[in-house]
Amino acid sequence: MAMNQFIISTLTCLLVLIPTSAAPHRERHDEYFGSTDYDWEGENTLFKRYSIFKNNVMFIHAANKRGNATYTLGLNKFADLSNEDFRAIYTRPFQNKGVRKERGVTTQSLSGENGSQSLPSAVDWRKSEAVTGVKDQGPCDGYEDVPANNEDALMKAVSHQPVSVAIEAGGLYFQFYSKGVFSGSCGTDLDHGVAIVGYGKTSEGDKYWIVKNSWGTDWGDGGYIKMKRTNSEGLCGINKLASFPVKVSTNPSLEESDSLINLHLGRKSRQSSINMAKIK
């Protein structure tokens, strides 16, 4: 307890000595750390996290200040994690060699010549109550793969049901996404599973996917992100590895379908508090 009080007192003195121009950082820091349960082992923990927090605040401010982006970044529960820490906790490289070949499914129904011309201009399965919380559903009969790197085929699949996809989600811009149509810098090395639950287009003409993440409602736009639709591999590789569950039984319930999609993603959000000791 004495050590805790010493650290808090020392940090308070440090913050007082910071120039007035850094006041916004101090206020945000105090607000954030006031509700954070820290493991106090190691007297440098709080100082290290504050330094990371301050760097992230400056990054977010600089990114938003550019003013020409279709999206906005914001502070969230990952504000005290460096990008290296964030990647280590919340992403994992996909080992997907041979996956499509082993399944032996057909994709002819999704690769028709008409492309996306006859599809609805916008789809949002949330409005149809087809997107629910994750439930323990058990195994499904199989999965049908969407042709890789084919935006039209992916749109066709999403027009019928939510579709599970893999993306590269470990970038700083993705880490602090808040709202808008995301078009930030990211690669195509898949490391995270999500679900596309719709698509649409803004009044400015920006086409996007509606993507459901698994990091809780306190990330992104209530747990969702709108990602810019592009051809080829897609933004963050979203067009590379898409599939949806197949049931032999007729007329499965909407809750059942969504549970199978979440099961197929095969990953759960891991809490930073559990892993904090590994990244100090």
> How many β-strands, per DSSP?
9
CATH topology of the largest domain: Cathepsin B, Chain A
Strand proportion: 15-25%
For the record, give the distance between the C-alpha atoms at the N and C termini, rounded to a whole number: 20 Å
Q: Write out the CATH superfamily name of the largest domain.
A: Cysteine proteinases
Radius of gyration: 21 Å
Biggest β-sheet, characterized?
A: 7 strands, mixed
What count of domains describes the coordinates?
A: 2
Average the pLDDT over all residues and give the rounded result: 74
Label the overall shape: globular
Structure class:
alpha+beta
The succession of helices and strands, N to C, reads HHHEHHEEHEHEEEEEHH
Helix content: 25-40%
* Contiguous helical run count: 9
> Quick one: CATH class of the largest domain?
Alpha Beta
Low-confidence region ranges: 1-21, 101-108, 133-140, 259-280
- Just name the CATH architecture of the largest domain: Alpha-Beta Complex
InterPro entries: Papain-like_cys_pep_sf, Pept_asp_AS, Pept_his_AS, Peptidase_C1A, Peptidase_C1A_C, Peptidase_C1A_papain-like, Prot_inhib_I29
Signal peptide: 1-22
Domain Cathepsin propeptide inhibitor: 29-86
Family: Belongs to the peptidase C1 family.
